[in-house]
Write a structure and sequence with these properties.
single chain, Chorismate lyase
């Protein structure tokens, strides 16, 4: 794992990002051996990172039981933006999409929450890489309920486009009425860093979006990671005082 900061600190920051994204308070973390393999570091590095997270109040370690996520000690600030990058890119730039993985799975706890479904219910998922002029721009995880997710899974005309919202409206007459979006600074995880051609732990912009119908039903959920050196967000404020 090539980084410019100490390995234990890099692992700590990556674990923080993972816990916030995918875990609910009380969820159990993988064991030290699994984390050691995942991050390709020594056991001592994992232990040092875990001690820091425990000291800062992120987790609790119980002898003989394991390590458990306590929740985020400091609440993050959320900010609205005027337009979704995927929709803007779809309309303006020649974005190509490389589908890395797709299929049916049981969703992570946080994904099930965003979709408003029981954790034991399967969903359709996609992992896709968006490229501009052949260069990686963003990595997108998309999760859809089975209701129409299976239709999308069997239709390359839909998932080969970057914006699912536009395609759902065009092909299935599924209207997106509202989107809840959060944007935060994050670090490149080993699961997608290579696809974006950046080092593990490099700064990235993370965006989460839940798309809703007119009735308020969640239609699908996306989690996107943007190369920070290839994006600039502009927010125009009317009420600036």
């Amino acid at each position: 794992m090539q980084t410019t900061i100490p390995k234990f600190l890099n692992v700590k920051l990556l674990l923080q990002a993972r816990m916030v994204r995918d875990m609910a308070p009380g969820d159990q973390l993988p064991g030290e051996a699994a984390l050691q393999t995942d991050f390709d570091v020594s056991r001592a590095t994992i232990q040092q990172a875990m001690r820091m997270l425990e000291t800062e109040g992120w987790l609790r370690r119980e002898q003989g039981r394991g390590t458990f996520y306590l929740g985020q000690p400091v609440r993050q600030m959320e900010q609205e933006t005027s337009e979704l990058l995927e929709t803007l890119a779809e309309k303006t730039y020649p974005i190509t999409v490389d589908v890395r993985q797709k299929g049916v799975q049981f969703p992570p706890h946080k994904v099930a929450e965003h979709l408003g479904i029981p954790g034991g219910q399967q969903i359709v998922y996609f992992e896709r890489l968006g490229l501009l002029d052949g260069k990686p721009l963003l990595y997108v995880y998309t999760y859809l309920p089975m209701e129409y997710g299976m239709q999308v899974l069997n239709d390359p005309d839909v998932y080969k486009h970057l914006s699912f919202a536009l395609q759902l409206e065009r092909k299935f007459n599924v209207e997106v009425a509202q989107v809840t979006q959060t944007i935060s600074a994050s670090l490149a995880d080993p699961t997608f860093a290579q696809a974006l051609e950046i080092d593990v732990g490099a700064p990235v912009i993370e965006g989460e979006r839940t798309y809703f119908s007119k009735s308020g039903t969640p239609l699908f959920f996306t989690r996107s990671f943007y190369r920070g050196d290839r994006h600039r967000f502009v927010v125009r404020l009317k009420d600036w005082r």
